[in-house]
Amino acid sequence: MKTKIYNALNKRYIVILIMLLAPLFGFIDRNFVFFFGLSIVLFIFWKSGYDKSKFGLDFKLNWNTFFKSIVYTIILCLIEYVLIGPLLDAILGMTDLSSFDDVKGDLGSYIGLMLVMWVFAAFGEELLNRGFYLKWLAEFMGNSKNSWIISSIITSAYFAAGHIYQGVRGAVGVFIWSILISLIFIKNRKNLWLLILIHGLFDTVGITLIYFDKIDYISLFFKTLYGL
Known about the structure:
The chain starts with a helix and ends with a helix. It is globular, with a radius of gyration of 18 Å. It contains 9 helices and no strands. Helix content is 74%, strand content 0%.
């Protein structure tokens, strides 16, 4: 039975069905949308004999990947906190981060969120959204350069929609961030570990700023600097 299910799921077009079905679980809880998709991915990974190539995990984690992730993270942080972020804040208002209020000044919550973030956001979201949704959709559409770009746009919008609880500003910011990290994946299709590290390091910066309650101050500083 499990083999039959795996054979049915191990088709590139199945990604479209999963992307259509997953949002239905949002009526129960928004987190179910993520866990439904991730469960499918983990099942396919398990039944394939842990075939890493299916999800872009061909490359082993190494120091070169780690150093590249730091460089990319610095660039993405500059884009978010210095360049595009303040402009979006001025136009759309601040990102709704009220769901993270309990982290401010609370070391226990900060450490707990860090652990959850690295497991489910950094590893889980990248495995699902880039390793599965983006990669499989691009391959289904022909595996050409254009198919990867179109897939990046579609899956970035899909990913951003899942963050609408952070307000319009949050969703737009996530869309732009997702487009950028998807472009990195296009150049490193066999190294999903790079994206996992970038995601984890980027969110580590954000969570740390929330812990010290500094995100609003940074935005205010650059908006004032730019006269926004």
